[in-house]
Amino acid sequence: MAKILFNHVYKRYGKFKEVAVNDFNLQVEDGEFLVFVGPSGCGKSTTLRMLAGLEDISDGEIYIGDALVNDYSPKERDISMVFQNYALYPNLTVYENIAFGLRLRKLPKHEIDLSVKRAARVLEIDNFLDRKPRELSGGQRQRVALGRAIVRKPQAFLYDEPLSNLDARLRVQMRAEIISLHRKMEVTSIYVTHDQVEAMTMGDRVVVMNKGVIQQVDTPELVYNRPNNIFVANFIGNPPMNFIPGKLLEDGEDVDFHTNRFALRLTDKHAAQLRKHQLVGKTVILGIRAEHMSFESYELEQHSRSLITGVLEFGEFVGSDRYYHLEIGMDSLLIARAHTRYQFNNGMKVSVALDMEKALFYHRDTEILLTD
Ligand SMILES: Nc1ncnc2c1ncn2[C@@H]1O[C@H](COP(=O)(O)OP(=O)(O)O)[C@@H](O)[C@H]1O
Ligand SMILES: [Mg+2]
């Protein structure tokens, strides 16, 4: 077990030295479960593979514990990795599949036996040890692949989209199993996924990446509630955050956010923060999540200065709630969550009251968060 440190790490591929990972700086705490999330091609696998020693580092340093491992072989790094395409040996039993790496390391037989059985017990596959992979379900096979990784206690576990090939139900179950396994073993872990739900549900902290650059490193709560920039706000959460461009204008002591259709009164705190940025009189982007709006009539009355009226384009029923898509001018749609007791028809004019304390304001050009 160990902490892991990336210090100004770069990866440039090929003749044209295209930057796949750009100035990556991160400390992973000892025993932490950290998730890398981002769209396909953003450099997640490359970063993980550089840590594992499967890919050269173009620039920078990687430490595992106190050791600078840039020149260590994968084996010397003492890391276990689980991939999406877990290849089990078809002719070997479950037991032999799990034992394989330990045999390569020439461990004594009784030690191998103890380790395999312990791993199998943790993963609840101890009844299948004599079976061949083809006699197992997809989930059981994935557990054998995990067993091969956890059979020993390495410095760190690395997971590269290990659940992508499983169906939705099994994925949810395996997610929980990997986390409960982590609680038992407490080995520093990095888990890569392009699925923001997986990232939010599993990570102690989440690292959001885009185009080889870290966008934000935070707890799932902070990544969701305080996205550092518009990319993160768009990527995390379903539906994504709503963004509305508008101009900040003084109204006596107050500041209002104006579009050509409506005006919203800012909280004193937001007004003060945006004044400090000298953005009053300028255009900014307001971000608001679908659940931070209300259709309740008493809310509409109480918050007469934070109303948006739009034309209902359509509603999406998701069981517990309904998401209404409102046309609010400037070719913009606003997605608002409503309790299913609300029934609006397409084409209706409806109003929502925004919870302005929950609103976030982003810079129009840099797309960076301006308020908190
Ligand atoms: N072996 C390689 N040679 C050249 N380019 C590569 C290689 N592997 C990955 N890349 C490029 O590096 C970028 C990051 O890839 P990758 O780390 O696999 O992304 P992710 O795992 O986030 O989907 C992509 O643009 C990809 O095309
Ligand atoms: Mg990948």
TrEMBL record:
Provide the ABC transporter domain boundaries: 4-236
Fetch the Pfam families from UniProt.
Answer: ABC_tran (PF00005), OB_MalK (PF17912)
A molecular function (GO) term: ABC-type transporter activity
Query: Which SUPFAM superfamilies does this entry report, sorted A to Z?
Result: MOP-like (SSF50331), P-loop containing nucleoside triphosphate hydrolases (SSF52540)
> In its UniProt record, which GO terms are filed under biological process?
carbohydrate transport
Gene Ontology, cellular component aspect = ATP-binding cassette (ABC) transporter complex, substrate-binding subunit-containing
Q: Origin, by domain of life?
A: Bacteria
Q: What is this protein called?
A: Sugar ABC transporter ATP-binding protein
